[in-house]
Amino acid sequence: MSAPDLEVLHVDMDCFFAAVEVLDDPSLSGRPVVVGGTGPRGVVASCSYEARATGVRSAMPMAQALRRCPNAVVIGGRHARYAEMSELLHGVFREFTPVIEPISLDEAFLDVSGSHRLFGTSEEIGHRVRRRVTEVLGLTCSVGVARTKLIAKLASREAKPRATRKGTVPGPGVVVVLPEEELAFLHPRPVRDLWGVGPKTAERLARYGVQTIGDLAVLSADSLERVAGRAVGRQLHALSHGEDARSVQTSVALKSIGHEETFPTDRHDHAELHPELVRLSDSVGRRLRSAGMTGRTVNLKLRFADFSTIVRSHSLAGPLLSSAEITRIASALLEGLDVGPGVRLLGVSVSSLEPLESARGRQLSLIDLDHPATAGPEGPGGPDGRQRRRPDEPARAEVEAAVDAIRQRYGSGAVGPATTVEPGSRLRVKDLGDRQWG
DNA sequence: TCTGGGGTCCTCTGCCCT
DNA sequence: TCTGAGGGCAGAGGACCC
Length: 438
Prior knowledge:
Number of domains: 3
Shape: globular
Distance between the termini: 36 Å
Structural class: alpha+beta
């Protein structure tokens, strides 16, 4: 193998969340473990190979998973613990290269082009990474090695163990795809394996008789652009020929920060939704501040009982200064919507992000405070019924910074907006806590 | 037989301005 | 002064990924 040709490693942990649970509680070893939402609308986030053997998959509704595997051990999940293990994992990666592109808690691309003198060929590095992951974390991972990210990712999938009815069949652990083998490796695979092909695009392509990447590769770029749109069409054409110019990116600018939540039962009026909106907005504001970011656009997302989804957004001329301001704009957006049909999911996010420091210089412009051009959506607000930035926003921002400090010290439920106090409790506010999957 | 949560990117449409 | 073309931008929806 010529080292310079193969420089991308894709490292993917095997059943990460479920494996961490088994590691922390060895009595679960050999049993079907399912990690995910435990509520009536929960889905599977991760499951052990024993569970997979019964047909359970990630993103499957938990109710369906339990029908397939009634003796499954269901665990709600501990995001903080997974994040801790993920930190260890990245420490292992840093032993081999500084060029790391994290994809999620349990997955990353590594560019090892500068690591050959110390650690050998890319394939040898792949094996070393696997060994170190097992030594440091006590868990297993699979590694794909190739010239490009897409092929490295598909290779790591090949390297994984497989769940069968008779038990788990171990995988090779490391799979290398040489440049001259790329097309033979790619073309027999289903088009769904390509980035950018989801269920909808796959269905559209199937109408043209395209089932495999090889079928796709014989189509012209123009035809693909007509079927899948300009950007996606071009990308698919390149990928199907093994061309993938994307390099391993060590830092990707954050574009938005948000929270959304599916309710156990649908909410039918604004009064029911308001406290949830305040809680979500407060949490988004807190995350923005802790990331040292601010934004200009508030997005409100609603998913109705029939699963249709709408997003409403509003942009300010200047940066958002406080959670209260996010809440106010999101509330005004919600005000104008009919929630009668039943809302199953509510989400709040902030986009058009920039670092707080660079935004500060502009934060108190006269325009932001009182110019109609920056007025928000119709609704309760200024005397003309339009939304205005309130002159007390900077003071609010200071209060919220103090609240953040209290939370840092006494926990996230220690203090928060009065609207979010849990009924019957005078001490704790309802908090998002450790319920994110990342 | 129901479909989470955190995101990104692309496309289309309508509005405003030149 | 009116009108159309075209660019830029915001808002909305859809598709996709992990």
